[in-house]
Amino acid sequence: MTTIFGYPLVVWMGQLLLGLINGSFYAMLSLGLAVIFGLLRVINFAHGALYMLGAFVALLMATHLGINYWFALVLAPLVVAAGGAVVERTMLSRLYKLDPLYGLLFTFGLALLIEGTFRYFFGASGQPYAVPGALAGGMNLGFMFLPIYRGWVIVASLVVCLAVWLLIEKTKLGSYLRASTEDPVLVQSFGVNVPLLLTLTYALGAGLAGLAGVLAAPIYQVSPLMGTNIIIIVFAVVVVGGMGSILGAIVTGYLLGIAEGLTKVIYPEASNIVIFVIMAIVLILRPAGLFGKDA
Amino acid sequence: MNRLIMTTALVAAGAMPAFAQEVSDNVVKIGILNDQSGVYADFGGKASYEAALMAVEDFGGTVLGQPIEVVTADHQNKADIASNIARQWYDTEQVDAIMELTTSSVALAVQALSKDADKITITTGAATTELTGAQCAPNSFHWAYDTHALAVGTGGALVDQGGDTWFFLTADYAFGYSLEEQTTEFVESKGGTVVGSVRHPLTNPDFSSFLLQAQASGAKVIGLANAGLDTQNAIKQAAEFGIVQGGQRLAALLFTLAEVNGLGLEAAQGLSLTESFYWNRDEASAEFGNRFMERTGVMPNMVQAGTYSAVLQYLKAVDAAGTDATEAVSAKLHEMPVDDVFAQGGTVGANGRLYKDVYLMEVKKPGDSDIPWDYYNVLQTIPGDQAYISPEDSGCPLVNG
């Protein structure tokens, strides 16, 4: 049997695939963060809470309204996005003129508030969300047993990431968005409604987090703590990718997922810090991040 | 006849102040200190406080003619915060005893502090055997369960049932190590072998890598030496990877009714676990469970039922001692048998350990559970003297011999 560093090749392939699945979540979450930071200059600490909210909305839709997974996949992100839009319009937009620190503090407080509320009503241990019937079960790939649902997560996240990237880099709406971050006053003088664009941007980022939450619901226990557990990693992904770089966030998300997966084979104890070690190395060698423009 | 009643009343009235002088500050005050917002908030949490209130009400609301008060606080699983609260309770709020104390690090810290402050602690929420081992204290008690009982129950009993090869998924901190170590000891003493283990970080959301390694090991039993959300995620993902269907058995070393409820029977079915209380085990426990359910909306697990028992026994001891002075109450707690809904014929060792039966449970299939919260089949009853380390072997310096 072929071995690398003393581990059979099949083990590596299995872990590679698992890393890719975790990377899918990192990519989708860091994409939303990067979009929000890139266009609004807000470090959105509430991103983890929005992710948790997506999972909970899907869960509540299933238990109280009988809405199945596929509808929840569309509806829950819309609900989260709408909530995001309201927050941006009524509160966050008032902070743009202040130091970016205020945005960070506000979103951090918001995250604590949302999580605390959910913990009060649902307890810390959370609730289960069933894998949708059509995606239940798994298949034997020869080197590993792949639950079909996890395969679906990879496909779905790739499609979503690609779509968002195209939206921002290749469409007219995207060009407005990018232009209004460069010079909002000039863009506004062309008759573009910049505040509305910023609201839409925050809603898009929030919706992406909500979508990741719905995708995660059948895999992880739907718990008020699920956002806190993942948000720090996602921040590291954005930093490694380059603050505000959309492509950087996507690619780095998948890469770090894989790096983490492989660490779990070699030295499991380090699997939760490997991402931060990489972050430290990248910051030393390329302070602007892998894909960041040198400031 | 009238004269007799009058005399009795006079005697009683005369006796009251005499007793009252024996109760410090004219109130018996119990503190329930635990995690109410973090990962163990369902494990004990606010429901433990309710359990304490229930015990006070069931006792009658007063002891030695003085009111009983229960205070509570959230220690956030941090030993320093817990120590500060405990100190404040003892120094300025006249708290006589602290109970619950979920999380081993917290329990050890508060127990050490209480030893210096000459106060009583009764731990129900923490697992480490250290509490009644090397770090035991004369006025401290360990009530509901410990890592040894979990290891004997889940580890030992499963080997008897044919699960003789094990693979551990262990949380990478002191609690995980001690659980793995003690379970390994039991598995090996029964003739089983441990084929491997992997240590995962605390609050690790994704277990698939570790589960694949466990699957590849071919072990008959996968032991989950972790707690709370980690165990839930591991079990949920094990179902996803078809581990139980593939013939391997999952053994959660610390898992209670609260977590089973959170996970749902679909994912938890077939799981083996050990608890020292199950509400639907007999009539008395069901009656208690239903009363508890009415107040809290959940059925009690061993931590909550244990807290009820601890508070009740403490009040009985105060009553029997005729005072709330630490030494006298502690002596009564050591000598009085424990008979309530939680423990039947329980005894307390010189090291402060409560010896009572623990139960090996199996989680029911969704179809077999016909009433809400009816989650367990009791597979085996393990007598207290087998479940817990004897005072002589505990390493507690207070035990002679």
TrEMBL record, chain A:
Bilayer topology term: Multi-pass membrane protein
Any one Pfam family match given in the protein's UniProt record, by short name: BPD_transp_2
GO terms for biological process, alphabetical: amino acid transport
Segments passing through the bilayer: 12-37, 44-63, 69-88, 100-122, 151-168, 196-220, 232-259, 265-285
Subcellular location: Cell membrane
Gene Ontology CC: plasma membrane
Keyword Glycoprotein: no
Domain of life according to the entry: Bacteria
Principal location class: membrane
One GO molecular-function entry: transmembrane transporter activity
Keywords: Amino-acid transport, Cell membrane, Membrane, Transmembrane, Transmembrane helix, Transport
PANTHER family (UniProt xref): ABC TRANSPORTER ATP-BINDING PROTEIN (PTHR11795:SF442), BRANCHED-CHAIN AMINO ACID TRANSPORT SYSTEM PERMEASE PROTEIN LIVH (PTHR11795)
Family: Belongs to the binding-protein-dependent transport system permease family. LivHM subfamily.
Protein name from the UniProt record: Amino acid/amide ABC transporter membrane protein 1, HAAT family
TrEMBL record, chain B:
The family this protein is said to belong to: Belongs to the leucine-binding protein family.
CDD domains (alphabetical): PBP1_SBP-like
Keywords linked to the UniProt accession: Amino-acid transport, Signal, Transport
Keyword Transport applies: yes
Entry-linked PANTHER family: LEUCINE-SPECIFIC-BINDING PROTEIN, PERIPLASMIC BINDING PROTEIN OF ABC TRANSPORTER FOR NATURAL AMINO ACIDS
Membrane spanning stretches: none
Signal peptide: 1-20
GO biological process: amino acid transport
All copies of domain Leucine-binding protein, residue ranges: 28-365
UniProt xrefs under InterPro entries: BCAA_transport, Leu-bd, Peripla_BP_I
Protein name per the record: Amino acid/amide ABC transporter substrate-binding protein, HAAT family
Lineage: Bacteria, Pseudomonadati, Pseudomonadota, Alphaproteobacteria, Rhodobacterales
Pfam families named among the record's database cross-references: Peripla_BP_6
